Amino acid sequence: MKTYVTTLAQVLYQTVKGKSKSEVDLLVKRALDLLRRKHLWKDRSDLLKKLKTLHLDQQDKIAVTVISRYALSPAETSSVKEYVREQYKRQAEISSQLDPGVLGGFKVIVGDSVLDATIAGQLKRLQKFLTQENN
After folding, report:
1. Is residue 26 a contact partner of residue 12, using CB atoms and an 8 Å limit?
2. Buried b / exposed e across 95-125, counting CB within 10 Å, b at 16+?
């Protein structure tokens, strides 16, 4: 993420603390206008992601995206939360994305880390292992 967008997110996050909804709306609008004027409009989703990360950090939580063909069962969701708690020492804030292209399994995305437990991912890793030359 660009430093400018990261800095803008940090300043905006600190500035909105204790403000009313109308004040927050105005500040967010101004931040987005600033991105547009600086020709950084394409980075608006990065700004929103950073704001979400800052908010979750304050709550000692971490954003987790699970991509799967079908919604996870409560047991699967619980397993993902436990995995994140063990690996990152934080409570997981899970959002789900359904992807009909996933034939089976799921991907878990935490920050820049991806745990690919899809069937396609497992097959790719197996293919890579089988085709590696022993050096």
Report:
1. no
2. ebeeeeebeeebbbbbeeeebeebeebeeee
Residue with tokens 């101004």: 30
> Is it the case that residue 133 has pLDDT exceeding 90?
no
Do 92 and 79 share a structural domain?
A: yes
Kindly state whether residues 67 and 118 are assigned to the same domain: yes
Name the nearest CA neighbour of 54 among 10, 119, 1, 115. 10
pLDDT for 57-111, tens place per residue?
889 999 999 999 999 999 999 999 999 999 999 999 999 999 999 999 999 999 8
In the block, residue with structure tokens 């880390």: 113
pTM: 0.71
* Same domain (yes/no): 92, 116: yes
Q: Among 29, 57, 85, give the residue marking a domain's end.
A: 57
Answer whether 83's CB lies under 8 Å from 110's CB: no
Number of domains, the chain: 2
Which range of residues forms the domain containing residue 109?
A: 60-131
